[in-house]
Design brief:
Elements (H helix, E strand, L loop, with lengths): L1 H20 L5 H9 L5 H15 L4 H17 L3 H17 L3 H17 L3 H17 L3 H17 L3 H21 L3 H20 L3 H17 L3 H17 L3 H18 L2 H18 L3 H5 L1 H13 L14 H138 L4 H32 L7 E5 H11 L1 H6 L3 E4 L6 E5 H17 L6 E8 L3 E7 L7 H8 L19 H11 L3 E7 L3 E9 L8
Parallel strand pairs: 2-4
Antiparallel strand pairs: 1-3, 4-5, 5-7, 6-7
Helix pairs in contact: 1-9, 1-11, 2-3, 3-4, 3-5, 4-5, 5-6, 5-7, 6-7, 7-8, 7-9, 8-9, 9-10, 9-11, 10-11, 11-12, 11-13, 12-13, 13-14, 13-16, 14-16, 17-18, 21-23
């Protein structure tokens, strides 16, 4: 019964550890992914701590390496408190690696540091950790010493949760000693202590701890010859285990119930309990439990066979270690032979079933053929008549469909011609506008430059006049250059040379790129461009086209903003779309200008607040690129208050076709 109580705790711990670690990633890969986004050393230290604490149960050696590296970083950055946290984690990991001496030494370092800092709760947790290490290393006497010291502090600082946890640990040690020994007084003391801890467990401890209390009380009362109370607490433990579907808990508590039935001489009920345990093990797939409970099953079978209700069922096996190992090898061999026999019989059964199925299929096929032949003979006459009638009907139906198809084709051709005419008309208007703008915006700087050269040949112009004239020509050339860039982008799309490359776009970062690109113009007008987009916002779209749209709208916002104002870029998350908005505090537009811009056609260029010029085709290309990706752009504006441009990006309707 002693080792059974230990196995209960270990079994439940195993389940919790398994559930915790099943979703974990490889430690170093996870850490590297965390560090990739961090620049601050203190955040890197915390990333090491986070990964090591989440990993130590599943991969203790890897967690130890990560924690030691994090500890070194914490020392280098003089982060005193986190250093102690790392040492505490390393101490816990050393215990899981069975390096008990190293674990205890590490926890003592943390204990002394916490006592020096006056950290009472931290000191209590260090004492609890030291007690846990001694308990795991099978030194119950030393574990009890440190548990009791931790209990004193827990009561002084009124930490009821940890007081309950420590009380349960002490109760486990007392129960183990009482179950191993022969003194009735020790059993009574252990029972009394566990009864006191139940109140703590009900108020603050999880049900796993409450289950442990009930199970240990069931074993202790059985040893104390109080079968009724043993049955009462064993039933409570079974209820908790079955409610939580704890296979280990169900088996360990039900084996004690079988012990109780043996003591009462109710051998049939004991045999039923054994069968229930077997069914639970089989259902859970934890077949190793058959080996763990095999000696218990044998002893219960012996008690039933000999009709001896006074047999005391314990976990102490009289076989030697060598005998136990030989028995384990024998069980392994038997299990393997049974598995092979099962697989062979299963395969033979499958082959027999397959032969029977094939025979049945052949019989059904033969019967079907006979019936089919009879049916074909009877229906042949009707089919010939139907074919003749159907042929005539098909001929008439085909003629009707051909007429309808021809009508539909003529209608589609007329619609295509109309659309092509409309597109040619718009293209002709656009080309006329393009030639007009090109002839003006390219000829103007060239003509001015020619005048400057002609005059400079005739007379010596002052250097200030030449510089001023060249600056003016430079502004005109800059406007013409921007217009040519936009025309090149547009012509590339019109010629079909570029296809959409839909990818994930980080809006915040692209806004920052634009902010850097326009820094000179922003400084010139003393403008503040605020990037209020959430760094986590990601959209799907074509990078080059989105960059063009973003640059063009921000450039227009700078162009029409007054000196010292603010341009704000923000986003709105909606159920069906993400909206990226650019708002300025500039000149604004009246309803007539706003309506022209909404027409998505080439517009007349307007001078900016510093008399900046433009070609008037940028916003048209923005509309065209947005429509190509399944987006749309809308605008709001008031004269003197500024304008807001909304780029509306549907979440599920982005086209990825060329």
């Amino acid at each position: 019964m002693v080792s059974a109580s230990k196995s209960i705790i270990l079994g439940v711990t195993f389940i919790l550890c398994y559930l915790f670690t099943s979703a974990q990633q490889t430690g170093w890969n996870r850490l590297n992914s965390e560090l990739a986004t961090l620049n601050d050393d203190s955040l890197k230290v915390m990333a090491h701590y986070k990964v090591s604490t989440e990993l130590y149960k599943s991969s203790p050696q890897e967690a130890k390496e990560i924690a030691e590296k994090g500890y070194q970083l914490a020392v280098a950055n003089k982060m005193g408190e986190i250093q102690l946290s790392f040492l505490n984690v390393i101490g816990v990991i050393e215990s899981k690696l069975y390096n008990f001496d190293e674990s205890i030494n590490t926890h003592f370092k943390v204990l002394r540091a916490r006592e020096k800092n006056g950290d009472r709760k931290g000191a209590m947790l260090s004492l609890l950790n030291i007690g846990n290490v001694f308990n795991v290393s099978r030194d119950a006497k030393q574990a009890l010493v440190y548990y009791e010291q931790a209990m004193v502090i827990a009561r002084e600082i009124a930490d009821i949760r940890n007081e309950a946890n420590i009380a349960i640990n002490i109760g486990n040690i007392r129960a183990q000693g009482a179950l191993k020994g022969s003194k009735k007084a020790d059993v009574v003391d252990a029972i009394n202590y566990l009864l006191k801890t139940i109140d703590f467990s009900k108020r603050k401890a999880p049900e796993v701890d409450l289950y442990n209390c009930y199970t240990l009380l069931g074993y202790l009362y059985l040893k104390n010859e109080d079968v009724l109370k043993s049955e009462y607490y064993t039933d409570l433990a079974i209820d908790i285990a079955e409610a939580g579907n704890f296979t280990y808990g169900i088996c360990y508590s039900r084996i004690n119930r079988a012990n109780i039935f043996v003591r009462r001489g109710q051998f049939e009920l004991a045999e039923k309990e054994v069968e229930i345990i077997r069914q639970n093990i089989e259902k859970s797939g934890l077949h190793d439990l058959f080996d763990e409970f095999n000696s218990d099953f044998q002893k219960i079978a012996k008690a039933i066979k000999e009709d001896d209700k006074d047999i005391v069922l314990t976990d102490v096996d009289s076989a030697t270690v060598a005998d136990a190992e030989e028995m384990e090898l024998l069980r392994l061999k038997v299990r393997e032979e049974l598995r092979e026999k099962y697989e062979t019989e299963k395969k033979e059964l499958e082959n027999k079933n397959l032969l029977l199925e094939n025979a049945a299929i052949e019989r059904e096929s033969l019967l079907f053929k006979l019936l089919l032949s009879a049916a074909l003979t009877i229906l042949l006459t009707f089919v010939i008549m139907l074919i003749l009638l159907q042929r005539k009907n098909v001929q008439l139906r085909n003629e009707k469909q051909n007429v309808e198809r021809a009508r539909d084709e003529i209608k589609e051709q007329a619609e295509r011609i109309h659309e092509q005419h409309k597109e040619l008309f718009q293209a002709d208007r656009f080309r006329s506008r393009i030639f007009s703008v090109v002839s003006h915006d390219l000829r103007a700087p060239i003509a001015n430059f020619q005048v400057l050269l002609s005059v400079s040949k005739l007379i010596d112009l002052p250097a200030d006049d030449i510089k001023r004239t060249l600056i003016a020509i430079g502004h005109e050339v800059e406007t013409a250059s921007k217009m040519l860039d936009e025309l090149l982008v547009w012509s590339s799309q019109q010629m079909g040379n570029e296809s959409l490359e839909i990818t994930s776009l980080a809006v915040f970062e692209l806004v920052e790129v634009c902010k850097s690109l326009f820094s000179d113009r922003l400084n010139l007008k003393e403008l503040d461009l605020k990037n209020c987009v959430d760094p986590n916002v990601v959209i799907q779209g074509d990078l080059k086209r989105f960059e063009f749209i973003l640059r063009n709208i921000i450039s227009n916002a700078i162009k029409f903003s007054y000196l010292g104002k603010t341009i704000t870029v923000f986003h709105e998350e909606r159920p069906e779309e993400v909206v990226v908005a650019i708002a300025d505090e500039g000149a604004g537009m009246d309803n007539e200008k706003l309506a022209k811009l909404q027409d998505r056609d080439m517009q007349e260029s307007y001078l900016g607040t510093f008399q900046e010029k433009g070609a008037g085709i940028g916003l048209m290309l923005c509309h065209e690129f947005a429509n190509r990706m399944g987006w749309h752009i809308r605008m709001e504006s008031k004269i003197g208050l500024g304008s807001t441009f909304y780029i509306c990006i549907p979440k599920h309707s982005i086209s990825q076709e060329d």
